[in-house]
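Researcher: Structure prediction, please.
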Amino acid sequence: LDKPDQFLLDLSGISFFNDRLMCLTFQSKLADSVSEIENQLNIFKSVIEFLTSNESLKQIFSVILVFGNYLNGGNKQRGQADGFNLDILNKLKDLKSKDNSTNLLAFIVKVCITVFDEKKGTLESLIPIPDPSEVEKSSHIDFEAQKAEIDKIKKDLDITTKKAENIVNKSPEDLKEPFHTKMSEFSVKAEKDIMALTTLLEECNSKFVKCMVYYRWSPKKGQLKDAKPEDFLSMWMPFCNDYKNYWKKEQVAIQKEFIKQERQKHLQRKESLRNVETKKTSAGGLKDKLLRRKSRKSTVAAVPENAAPPAENAAPPTENAAANDSNDKKE
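Model: Predicted structure follows.
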């Protein structure tokens, strides 16, 4: 037989081949299914925890409350508020300045960065709101659908585990391994993963309810426990998106200002070096003496080594002697 035919013949000799193939296929798909649900729930959990415990977000709300009370200062009821409803968040940008060049939300972003952000204008600066893309993903979470998906995975795992046990019990001894060991290890790990996934789902649901209670938010219809993430997070998406855009613009403006200041400092230092006055060395001073001594040493070093030293008592040559020397040379 050819190799392909021989391969198919060998496969036909394996007991419960179709059932084995189904078990292995489920094993490969389970990891992806569990990972997808786990990632969605972890994103949702991080968003909810950010909304309930992030200190920077609390500082933003304190600034919003202060500005709201200031703008409503003439109103005894609104001007002395201790809080505000979440639906106010999406109305902040609607309040424009006199020249229509900015709005209240943009001004709040600028104040928060100036007052609270110690690393403003640098790459280390962190945006004080949850990421808008994660908020959007979290708004699509449906706890009931997630629970149904986990229950389906658990049911398929039970069916696969029973099939694996049936294969091992009815297969000859030489065909039990390594299928039996691998499927046993897989079943134990899969049960732990599904249990952890169920716990994570319950934790997310609990944190979501606590978050709504924290903000004293109530749905327009039904009870708080029946509210869906989309009902609550739909208010946050526009605010987070607008805040992020204004925050980016303000950070870029601060970076440009830092660069401008550094250039000015550099020019000032350069200009100060040009205006430095050099003072002449005073005659008879210590520096003057050192310079003279240095010049003498350099002069002595310039004299050739083979040159004969002048006689101690030698008199300087006279004019007649010089003339005689010249006549001798002519002769």
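Model: The first helix runs from residue 3 to 12.
Researcher: Thanks, that helps.
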